[in-house]
Write a structure and sequence with these properties.
- This protein is α+β, with helices and mostly antiparallel strands and 246 residues long.
- Helices cover 36% and strands 18% of the residues.
- It contains eight helices and nine strands.
- A hairpin with a 2-residue loop joins strand 1 and strand 2.
Length: 246
């Protein structure tokens, strides 16, 4: 998909120029990294998605030392997290800050956000909830979202390391893009799938315990690094592709 088409379709949904550009950068970046489930297919998905206001503006509703609370206010989750991340880069924490984002869905490729933080010199740890799509490996009701966990670590000697792992054997984005069937969306790990299920459930409860309004949300920990471990790791791992590499 060319930028002209993608941006045109986003504008047609009612997004202003700045927001359309931000969404396009997210989708195009995902596509270029081979994450098709979070790429161009999401534009068609947004064209069918209900429950968001393209003109809404996320807001910072609570702030104190080491803590921020954001509220989507009807905005789509991509832009809520985008605003929150931008705020961290503009005003980094003295040491560390916990950021809770309420009414924040969908959020897309979480590695995109922690990469932005890491490229700005900050450590980021991010998770977000989604509709319940994972059940216990032995069966039963769906209890947790795929609840990815993304970690970005800056590097003084090149690109950051970015780990971004969904707790599903496939992602919902793969289903959206037609790359997988919904019945394949189970906790990853085969015989050890109970470990992924435990992580998904733990992350679900972490977010649910910190948001004050019912609905999907995100939790971000951002911190100033005290050391620069990535260059040494790259030397040790010479010839091996590290997480987040192209």
């Amino acid at each position: 998909m060319q930028p002209e088409e993608g941006l045109g379709r986003l504008r047609a949904l009612g997004f202003g120029e700045t927001d359309a550009q931000e969404l396009w950068e997210h989708f195009d970046g995902a596509e270029r990294r081979g994450k098709q489930g979070h790429g161009y297919a999401r534009i068609a998905w947004l064209e069918e998605l209900e429950g968001y206001d393209p003109a809404a503006e996320p807001s910072l509703v609570e702030e104190e030392e080491g803590f921020q609370r954001w509220h989507g206010g009807g905005a789509i989750g991509y832009l809520v997290l985008g605003r929150a991340v931008r705020a961290q880069l503009e005003r980094p924490p003295t040491r560390a800050r916990l950021v809770v984002c309420e009414r924040t869905f969908p959020t897309g490729m979480l590695g995109y956000y922690v990469r932005r933080l890491a490229e700005g010199g900050l450590v980021g740890v991010l998770t977000a909830t989604s509709p319940a799509r994972l059940g216990h490996p032995v069966g039963g009701p769906k209890l947790a979202g795929t609840n990815p966990l993304a970690i970005g670590i800056p590097s003084g000697g090149g690109d950051p390391v970015v780990a971004d792992v969904s707790m599903g054997a496939v992602t919902w984005g793969d289903v959206v893009a037609g790359l997988a069937q919904e019945e394949q969306l189970v906790p990853f790990g085969g015989e050890q799938a109970h470990k992924a299920f435990a992580l998904a459930l733990g992350l679900q409860l972490l977010v649910d315990s910190l948001v004050r309004e019912e609905g999907h949300g995100a939790v971000l920990l951002v911190a100033r690094p005290e050391a620069d471990p990535v260059p040494a790791l790259r030397r040790l791992a010479e010839g091996v592709r590290l997480p987040g590499g192209r």
